[in-house]
Each structure stands twice: as C-alpha cells, then as structure tokens.
Design goal:
41% of the residues lie in helices and 18% in strands. It has helices at residues 32-49, 67-70, 76-87, 135-149, 154-164, 176-189, 193-204, 234-241, 248-271, 293-297, and strands at 10-19, 57-61, 97-100, 123-131, 168-175, 210-212, 220-223, 226-231, 276-280.
Length: 298
Amino acid sequence: MSQASNSPAVFRGVIAIELRDGSPPERAALPAASAGEVAALLGRDLAKLAPDVADCELALLAAHFDPAEALRPAWPLHRHVQELLQRAPGQAQGGRVIGFGADAQGALPVPMQADAALAGGGLRVLPFVLRGGAFDSVAEQLESKLFDCGMAQADAALALQEGLGARIEHIRYLSLHDLLAMMAMQYQNAGLEGMWTLLETALLEPAGEWLLDAPPEPLARYADGEVRIALLDPATWQTRNAPQQDDAAKLERGFTLFQMRCRQYAAVLEAHGVPVQYVHCADGQPHCLHFPLQRWRD
C-alpha cells in the first residue's frame, strides 16, 4: 500500500492491542516521552524481522483507535501520521524514529483523538508508518513475516501497558494488509460477507463499483465513493425475498429482520468512513441504485 507516484512510498502498520476482558485503557495516548520510547522499541523489534528497517524513518502515533478508524478509504489515520512525520524537524538526519503522544496535560490535538462512538472494543490499534531506506525490501519482508512473527517483545508490551494504563492480553505488530485480513475474517464469521465485499471495494478499489444482489441480503451498490442501499416496502421485499411465503406473522418478522440488516450494514460501513445513502426502490431491481439520490427525491 503505497502513496501516489509523486509521494514517498510508505509502509503502513499498526500495533494491535488485545485488551484483557475488554477493559478500556485509562489513557487515550502515551505521554510524549513514552511515545518516543515505544517507537524506538517498535523499530528495534521490526528490525529483527527486516534489518533494513534501521535505515528507514519510523513514525508512531501513540494513541489507540478502533480498527475501523484505521481501515477507512484513503487511509486517513496513517496519512495523518505521515503528515506529522513530514512536518517534524530533522529530516536531514536520516533514519529518524519519532513517537507522537499526548502533551504534558495528557491532551491530544483533534486529529489524534479517537472516535468516542467506537470506544469499548476489545481490540485497539496504534498506527505507524515506515518510509525511505531500502523500502521495497523492508515492505516485502514485513508483509511476509509480521502476521506470524510480529509479537511485541516484553519490554515494549510493558511500556505500552503502563503508559496507557491498560490490562493487556496480547500485543502484536501487523501490516495494514494483515489487519484487513483479520477484519475480513471477523465479518465473515459474523455472517457479513456481503457487507465486506462493499467495504473491501471502497477500501482497495475506491474508483470501482460493486453490486450486492444476493437475497436475502440487502440490495446495495458501491460506486462514486458511497454505498447506496435500496429501501424496499413490505410488498416489494416479499416479491424479492419470500415470494412463496403466505404466513403474515413470518412475513412481518422477515421484513423487520431485513430492515435491521440494512441498518447493520449502514452502521458498519459508516464506522469505516464509507458514506451511505438510502434509495427508495419501488420494484426491488438493481437499476434503482444506479441513479443519484436526488432523482428519487424529485
């Protein structure tokens, strides 16, 4: 995952923290001094897997986020880390290692603050980027090794645990591809394969399109940077999803579950920063999702 051709290539990764019993950390970020210490330990651990890391610049944003905040179109969280690195002094010094943390009062600038609506999950991530040096070699080695061999060393884990005030089960380093694979598996295990295909397109092929037309799942389409979900009335839903059913109670339950499923899709996609529009679809056919929302309001 690299930037556009006119920007330096970067390796995007996270420190993934599995919280014990889902207990949230006491602090949103490490203090600045601790952030620098953890960044140095991270660089040391990564260099054991890919020695050329020592020649790269490494920047860690030592604040923790929900994984959904790291997996948003155009990777805004990691882009912010890269911008911090670019603005930091000492660019002529070669392989800098920088940790960005909270100020003396424990406060964070707004771009470094996690989404409060996504707090409470059992997995939190701290984003980091690598650039420069033998980048291609480093990226290839880390992509091939981190998932299986990326457990944090004891001193790094202890520094994170004490700095965040967290009860931690495991700490490991992942590439952004690894995090994508983990989340894909979680959504598939939760029966959200259809939603994942829309999200995956938004993340990896933002200029592409994907139509989900697989009853009884919602009828939805990703295009133009957003997902459009068809709003069906009960009769249209029955024609599309349960044409042979004549039990009124079962039909009512089925339609209610369908509406809940649409809201679930929308909530997960919006957590990942993908805009969602609802489109009234009188005939339940995919073509209704190819028109801008305004046309259906006229």
